[in-house]
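### Sample
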Amino acid sequence: MHLTPKEAFGLSSPDKIQRSGQTLGEVRRKELSHILTIERQLHELRRGHASLDPTGKIIRSAEIRDIREVKFASIIENSDQIEVEQESLPDIAKMISNAEEVYRYDALERLLRLQKLYLLTERIILGLEVAEIDKGALDRRWFNRWKINASESSNGALQQLWARILVRELINPGTTSLRALEYLSYFGLEDAENLNKLGGWACGDFIYRSALQALPRVFDSALFEQLEEQGIVRGVYGKVLSKTLLSQSEDHFTCDLKLAGKLLNISSNQPRPELHVPAYMITSIGRELISLVNATADMEYLEAMVQDLHARGMSVTLSDKPESTRHTHII
């Protein structure tokens, strides 16, 4: 619905596949195999291991070498009669032609990456309820920015991330901002792994600083310095920040914290309106980026949080799911 015929060139629409009587999986496997073949041929062309003849047929370098060897042998046999011309430097017309060829190769490479992303996105969508997908048009500016940034990524893990972003936008338009897309365009595999780590530590808009620092094997000060420079967290340099947890009851202190699918209920019999804990604060863009990953709670860090809260006179109830009635036990 959101792609032009040229973008989806070589990819069949689901309704066309249905009319053909073939299975979606079979058709997509053939199409993906074709994309990989074109990618391999493009790789050979870029590195001079093959060339295209006037009809568009791929000629391997081995064939070119054989032809050259025949010509070279002929030159040797008639060396007294033929003067070998030295290769001259290219003129502007040749340079323009070369630039156009490089541009075409780059454009094709980006298109092939996008086509793989479209197939990956479709696979994710097929695992969802159809009713979840918004039928409205994607914001053109957003989609264009997504395509520009996503087409530069060739790493499988990062492509998964870009595909999930597109699925989220299809389900709920406006979920991922243009600013977040810009941040992600600079991300490498290590940055994506760091997001997963943060996702395992994030309690909403903060990370429990003292709990993390109590784990020398886990805590990496250089990582947090980098995250602050990237604008993802605050409170690494300078003054130590704290998070204020507000009581949800006037009679006694009680507060719920969510951590990657876990629910912590913090309570005390003492009537107090709030509790302050040392924290790295997560910026709004940081929270948006962390929401893109499916992280699991770091259990060692979770245990350190519980110990710190106990030291502050708090009781903690941990639930494996948001519903407090399921799989609940007291720590």
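DSSP finds twelve helices and eleven strands in the chain. This sample (DUF2806 domain-containing protein) is used throughout the tutorial notebook.
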